[in-house]
Every structure is written in C-alpha cells, then in structure tokens.
Amino acid sequence: MDAPARAPRVAVLAGGLSHERDVSLRSGRRVAEALRSTGAEVSVHDVDADLVPALRQLSPDVVWPVLHGASGEDGSVRDVVRMMGLRVLGTGPRASRVAWSKPIAKTVVAREGVATPDFATLPQSLFRELGAGAVLDMLVARLGLPLVVKPSRGGSALGVTLVERREDLPQAMIACFSYTDTALVERAVVGVEVAVSVLDTGDGPFALPPVEIVTDGPYDYDARYNAGRTRYFAPARLDEATTRAVQDVAVRAHEALGLERLSRTDLVVDPAGTPWFLEVNVAPGMTETSLLPQSAVAAGHGLGTLYRALVDAAVRAPVATD
C-alpha cells in the first residue's frame, strides 16, 4: 500500500515595505489559515534580512508571494526566489514586470483587440520642465473629461483620483506623484465596475464569476479595505452574455501577459455592454473584503481547497529558471 503523500511545505511571503504592507499582512494571514485547514505546512515570512536564510533552512516546496506593491509585484522578490532554486506560486519575474507597469500592460492587452481607455503617461520631471498648466490643458484637449489620474505602478487605488473638472487636475497630479514618479492619465469610462479573477490549477486558466463593486464614492483605499463604504455583488449583476464577455477579457489578458496560476483583472462595463480593461494584478488581495476570495466563494469553492489546488499544481510543475 502506498504511503500517504507528504503535506506540502508552503512559505507565504507577506508584508514588505510598500505602501500596501498592512493589506499584504492581512492577505498572508488569510492564505496561511486557509492552507493550514487542508493539512499543509505553512510558514509566513516578512521580506527582510531574515528571509533568504529562513527559506534556505526551510527549503519549502513552494513559495507563495502574497505581496502587494513594489518588490512583491514588480518581479524582484520572485527573481530572488527563483535564483534560490525554489518554486514560485504565481507569475514569474519577467511577466510580473510587464503587468506591474499599467501603461505597458494596457498596450499589450490592446494588441489582442481588447478595449482599454485611451491614456497618456507623464513623468514628474517632464511635467515640471514643460510647465504644468500647458501640459494639463493638452491632456484635457486630447482625452476630455472626466479623467482618471493614477500611478503608473502600484495598487490598492493609492494615489488614484477621478477628475471631473479641469481645475481639480493639479491636485490629482500632486496626489499621484506622492506615490510614483510617473502618472498614467486615462479617459474615465462610466459604467459598472467589475473585477474578474483568473485561476489555473493545472488544466489551463479559467475565470471565476465577476464581482461587481458599488461604492458611495470613488473606490479608493478606504473603500476597499474598510467595511461599510462598498457593496459587492458576487456574482455581478450582469446578463449572461456580458458575464461571458468580461470573463473572456480577463482570460485573454492573463494569457497575453504570460501570467501564471492567478491574477485579477479590473474592468468597467459601459452602457453598451463593452468591457474596458483597466489593469491586472498578479498578487490579488486575499483579505476578508478582497475580490478573489469573494468570487471563489460565489462559485462554490472552499478557499482552503482552492488554494491547496493552486499549491499542488505549483508543486507538480518543474522549477522555472526565467
């Protein structure tokens, strides 16, 4: 009789030094709890000077970076884990770097025929050199109003502002530049905001039910992580054809960008039913209010079972070196 398979050893990375540290810590705890419920051996590690020695001593079967923001999503930590000869659950460093840059991700996805709002990128240095007033006038002339100003990299809606009046643009740019040196300014699309998570447990990527997001104002950091300001509908209140359309866009984005195991695509569905790609996240939030867990539960998945399936698929895969 065959001996039972050994429980996988999983090292969850959470925390780091980004603006999203607290969210990452909460996400990491939730993932660890869910995996432990399946019998997996799970340890949680911060990204600090103790990480590399700890991983060398532990020699986990797979490392799951539940890191939001820089280093966790820009590919750098994943590079280090790969150099150690360990498996990473999720997207590799190269594709992470592409997805981390919102302008590049939008360009790649648009080449696949996916609609994405027209946009311009503006480094802070150029903004100062050319003169703020003239540049902002050109932005409005080209893209119109309303506009969305957001950091070209980053998540959790930090530094993001919806601008409906020209006179509010300067303050929006200042808020954005407090988080990054390059702003992405895009035409705002009015419609239903949805998030679609994509998973791959070994048989190819598939989309979970879309989650609809309804807030009492902008879907900013406070609305995302503090209960009361936002209502979620999982699944989203979309007709069958539109549901299939947003799921198709999310899977196409996942594949076009070379993402692995899990991602979350944020979209807006306009009144004509067209899904507009906004951005993609290679390390989706896993807190109690996060969108991927809500979507998984709406699809009838137990979180522990689902996360364990992701781990098992990662363990079966060969160790990548790119």
TrEMBL record:
Belongs to the D-alanine--D-alanine ligase family. Its cofactor is Mg(2+); Mn(2+). NCBIfam families: PRK01372.1. Its main location: cytoplasm. Its EC number is 6.3.2.4. It comes from Cellulomonas oligotrophica. Mg(2+) 2 binds at E279, N281. It is found in: Cytoplasm. This is D-alanine--D-alanine ligase. Residues 106-312 form the ATP-grasp domain. The keyword Cytoplasm applies. The gene is ddl. Mg(2+) 1 binds at D266, E279. Keywords: ATP-binding, Cell shape, Cell wall biogenesis/degradation, Cytoplasm, Ligase, Magnesium, Manganese, Metal-binding, Nucleotide-binding, Peptidoglycan synthesis. Pathway: Cell wall biogenesis; peptidoglycan biosynthesis. It holds the Pfam family Dala_Dala_lig_C. The active site is at E20, S156, S290. It is an enzyme of class 6 (ligase). GO terms for cellular component: cytoplasm. Cell wall formation. Binds 2 magnesium or manganese ions per subunit. It catalyses: 2 D-alanine + ATP = D-alanyl-D-alanine + ADP + phosphate + H(+).
